[in-house]
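agent: user wants the full assembly modeled, not chains individually. Plan: 1) parse entity lines 2) check alphabet per entity 3) run joint structure prediction 4) return tokens. Steps 1-2 passed, four entities, 1261 residues total. Proceeding.
--- entities ---
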Amino acid sequence: MSDAAPILETRHLSKSFGALKATDDVSITLQPGEIHAIIGPNGAGKSTLIQQICGALRPDTGNVVLDGRDISGLSTQARARAGLGRTFQVSQLCMEDSVLENALLGAVGAQGAAWRFWRRALETAELRATAEAALARVGLSDEAATRCANLSHGARRQLEVAMALTLRPRAFIMDEPMAGMGAAGSKRLTGLLDGLRQEAPILLVEHDMDAVFALADRISVLVYGKIIATGSAQEIRSSRAVREAYLGDAE
Amino acid sequence: MKKLLLAAAAASICAAPAVAEVKVGMITTLSGGGAGLGIDVRDGFMLAIAQSGRDDIDVVIEDDQRKPDIAVQLSDKMIQSERVDVLTGIIWSNLAMAVVPAAVNQDVFYLSPNAGPSPLAGKGCNKNYFNVAWQNDNLHEAAGAYANTAGYTNSFILAPNYPAGTDALTGYKRFFEGDLAGEIYTKLGQTDYAAEIAQIRASGADSVFFFLPGGMGISFLKQYADSGIDLPVVGPAFSFDQGILQAVGGAALGVVNTSQWNKDIDNPTNAAFVESFQAEYGRLPSLYASQGFDTANLLLSALESASPSDADAFREALRAADFDSTRGDFAFGPNHHPIQTIYAREVIQEGDVFTNKIIGTALENHSDAYAADCKM
Amino acid sequence: MSAILIIEQVLNGLQFGVMLFLMAAGLTLIFGVMGLINLAHGSLYMVGAFAAAAVAGATGSFLLGLVAALAAAALAGTLIEVVVIRRLYAAPHLDQVLATFALILVFSEGTRWIFGSFPLFLEIPDALSGPVTLPGGIEYPLYRLTLIGIGLAIAVGLWALIERTRIGIQIRAGENDREMIAALGVDISRLYTLIFALGAALAGLAGALVGAIQSVQVGMGEPVLILAFVVIVIGGIGSIRGAFIGALLVGLTDTLGGVFLPEVFKLFMEPGAAQKSGAAIASMGIYILMGCVLVWRPTGLFGARP
Amino acid sequence: MRIAEHWINGAVLIGIAALPLWALFIDEPFTITLVTRAVILALAAVGLNIVLGFGGLVSFGHAVFFGLGGYAMGILAYHAQTYTVLDLGFFTTEGTKSMPIIWLVAMGISAIAAFFIGLLCLRTSGVYFIMITLAFGQMFYYFAISWAQYGGEDGLSIYVRNGFPGLNTLVPIQFFGICFALLCLVLILKARLQRAPFGLALNALRQSEARVATMGLNPMRIKLLAFVLSGAITGLAGALFADLNRFVSPAMFSWQFSGELIVLIIIGGVGRLMGPVIGACVFVALEHFLGGLTDFWHVYLGLILLGIVLFGRGGLLGLLTGKEGAHV
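--- prediction returned ---
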């Protein structure tokens, strides 16, 4: 797997807030078709890392490379257009609008269609097709007309994924998609993500270890901003460094 | 409508002379900052109407909130809906400029009890516009003239940075023969004059002229008095009027200001006016009250000889200005602005009350600088 | 332009600045702790001035007037906090703007209803009237010097209150994390009322102090309110230190701009025109200052970064 | 009481159209003027509602565009009525009394101003945005006051209302017709815009800026365009308002006016198509009737506004339809 060219890659990313090194020389890759999980204790710098990859934060040094192209200088929206499909830890949805309208927003973004002022988005066939396909893919077709605020927590997670899907991304960046889900919900979402890796590889930041070990092809462990180990689930479980730094502390 | 019927009924019962009902629209400032001026004009005006004993004059009063757009709207209402014959009441020049040209073009008479912007005295004069107060420059010109007689040769002058402020300084300079130690335009609505006062102190002037209406003048005078500068101050009556003088307090004592009216002008009309105004409203009348009173009396005098329905005759009757003014002699110039004497007054204290006393004449039978431009 | 004049103008700017600080401190505290935009803060300034004028007029004592100003403004502040403001803490900014805009209307016309349409009289106490001579031969009004002193003293007092007392700890905690102070067992609604009343009292005090050298009239609060907002936006909303620096900056910019810009313009224009255009630009000066600060730092000089 | 919003919308528009016709019939021309005033204020508020209601940007400086529209009209008409040349340095013209040209200029100037003001202000958000827009309003206000060439604080009087081909604009009902037609036109445009992709993006922006950026859309550009559109519409209203009064003054730039525009929107209902229209009608009616009752009518207006904020979330439309408006 590691011989193919990576889709997404960080090269020596570093970011400090004053004396605190939030990200310390992080180099990771995301290969085609894989799910690469990042785990680590609270405050290890996972969110900071994601924000640097997606463009909300500028790294002090290092690069983010997508499909061989350096995207470090691009804005969040340009990175999205370049193929980063992100979901948020705390759902960022338009709560006052319907599920379909949310998905349409993704379609508008995907097709760069925001500069249209007359025809209704709902009646624009190509936008609607994209949105509906994404909803179908995550199993939300029946909820299309539901107001987002009335959705269950799990369904909101699915909608987040659907919105990322409308972009037809080259890579997914998912920030704790399982957070706050019950067992049944987690299981359903795990199934969804499992199938999703065929569309694009997933960089998965997650606390739910069951999901991580069930899904991840590779796991990287982030502690105090540093990657201390990368490998298969088996390798991570047996790594002494990880045990000491992370699992050991936790258990 | 009901009022109309009542008035008509009253007229027929009393078998009054067959004068058609006259409708007067008064647009003035009755709320917000500056309401005091409008209230005084209204009270003076209504006092005269009441004293006339005529019950066929219907005065519709509306509050313009000192907003030009509201004033225009009210004048539309007065003209279109109330169908008034005569409009009056506006205090501020900018409101007058918004209302008057359109109103007089719709064949309504306008009698100005306070504002006299220069365009309406010069090129923009109109046969249906009469100013019963003064052209805006008048009191400032008088201040300039007074400064000469007082022997001042080097004045520091200041006014807010807006058209009436520019007019004020222009008016003063028109008559003042000395030099200027400094000339400052302040911010409109400014409340702190420490910076200007420091400049006055440093300027080497021998006198100060200022035009700062309303609260601005109160602030300036208080701060000036506290600064320890003892240069004599001259100003137009607006900052020394009965209404605000109490708020300035001792800071104004001894300041000379110019006015076409004061409560001690010696004529029977004025004495009666001051007395009846005090009796009716429980306060001393102000300059503005006297102007409202005179405006109403001008209107009443014209109504004696003509009805507004006969516009030409009514206009002639107004132009004759055949009424007893509180300021003594009063006549209209060719541009329908007053030709009148402007006095120098000094702020004094009578018991607890601060008021003014006439100390001399600044300009005799004075007209204005724009009359020549008026082609009527 | 002599050095004496320049020093005198700097003093003037300083005095203007510290008075603005009294207004701005309350505004910025109320925003920082409760997240509330209070347009009616200017009305509390007016309430203070009217109370001082009424009481000083009746008793002849300026000091009693000041006490009355503090009491009346704090009382009015408590009243509107309990009746109106506390329902707005969780509301969007838009609702806060509208509701406090409505309060301005009620306060302004209500005051006119009670006190009439003419300005009230309030005089500098005899002990403080007239100028004093400073080292270097500068003649400067004693009252203004006193204002500078009072303003600085209150700034120090506020700093001590916030840094050194229990209430200060609660206030600082409230700025950082509202849930935390609840967890600490503090009665939040009482704390909020207290802060609001404190802010109101400061505004009322400013109104009374300034009322003695200005005109005590309806609507006197609004121009100051706008300036105070400019101050806290420049300083960074919620920061007392920012409010202090911002107030001095605005005070100095406004005073010195008005004096020196026309002089600068005279270098290349004829005097009359220079005077007018200089004055025009100077009147926009503080807004230009604010625009520049926000372009440079979108959350003000000492504002929390998002 | 719950009524479908589109029925209320229709009824309001029909009511606005019918009242002046009735006034014409009973010969009460002032009522027509009053309704025209409401229509123009509504148009200005509809413009503001694009950024405030849909974009969630509380602009406290929209009087800038209203004033610019007004001064565009005032200056062009002033040069036309005095037969003087308007010299812009690179371009001279003689002014005009033609409404359509004035409208275009008013909208163009407002749009340009909105572009540059937006470029600076939209970098900030929340209270900072409110305050910096307010500051721009004050800048224009003070500039207009000291701009002696065009009357300064006195403002500019235009003696005869500007012309529209084929109509006599001095007849109140005809001028009302023009204003009403423009309001309807803008409402239609706005209704389309709201449902079009651009409206979708703007609406999403109010709720989550991060979401919009993550979808590959540039938040700044969307906000800026909304601000420009909004400014242009408010500018058009300013030109009409100046023509209604045949007068412009710096008061059009005042912060109180910016506040009034916000008040209109909240009375009617934030983020609703017809919210500003209903708000403007109610406001003008209150002003007219309360003002007639007492000198101290501001006290009552203030109390009514307080009631609306504290108890009537969603404005009148929210009350009637039983739905809250957009959250800003």
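agent: reporting back. Residues 166 and 275 of chain C are 53 Å apart (CA to CA). Residues 3-34 of chain C form the longest helix (32 residues).
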